[in-house]
Amino acid sequence: MNISIICSGRMKEDYYKAACAEYIKRIGAFANITVTEINEERLSDKPSDAEIRAALDKEGKALLAAVPPQSAVAALCIEGKQLDSPALADKINDFAINGKSNIAFLIGSSYGLSEEVKSRADIRLSMSKMTFPHRLARVMLLEQIYRALSISAGRRYHK
């Protein structure tokens, strides 16, 4: 299985980098994983709706261009479906069973994802009804992918 995490923006905080590195190492026991960071568009201090849409469209094209061919796409967005960890494990397994051994998880900028990205997604996922910094969302996603793969392998990590 190949898992791609494709994110808008660069990880700057050392504490998030360390957490990501730990989960990437753990996931490596189950799957090949890559993290790709695309440039986040710069916006004015008080961007208009049109400026935000234009930035999201540009970021969206870059996110989609980074998706490996033949991948199932999971877009992280607030209006997405909330899954518990076993259901995420089932969804990852379903993709694999249906011939999608490449799964790309897309994380947008603080303004979210373009409609084009959401339309391309095979599933829209939401972490919570609460709002999180998108860099923290990356850590949380990696932890949940590790947990899902552990569940599928029958490991004791999931409690």
Poorly predicted parts: none
Q: What is the mean pLDDT?
A: 94
Rg on CA atoms, Å: 15 Å
What gross morphology would you assign? globular
SSE string, helices as H and strands as E: EHEHEHEHEH
Main beta sheet, described?
Answer: 5 strands, parallel
Number of strands: 5
Spatial sequence of strands, sheet with the most strands: 2-1-4-3-5
Query: How many domain units?
Result: 1
CATH topology: Alpha/beta knot
For the record, the CATH class is Alpha Beta
Give the name of the CATH superfamily: SPOUT methyltransferase, trefoil knot domain
Walk me through what this model shows.
The chain is an alpha/beta fold and 159 residues long. The protein has one domain: Alpha/beta knot, CATH 3.40.1280.10. Helix content is 44%, strand content 21%. The protein is built from five helices and five strands, in the order E-H-E-H-E-H-E-H-E-H. The protein has a five-stranded parallel beta sheet. Helix 1 links the parallel strand 1 and strand 2. Helix 1 (14-27) packs parallel to helix 5 and helix 3 (85-97) crosses helix 5. The mean pLDDT is 94.
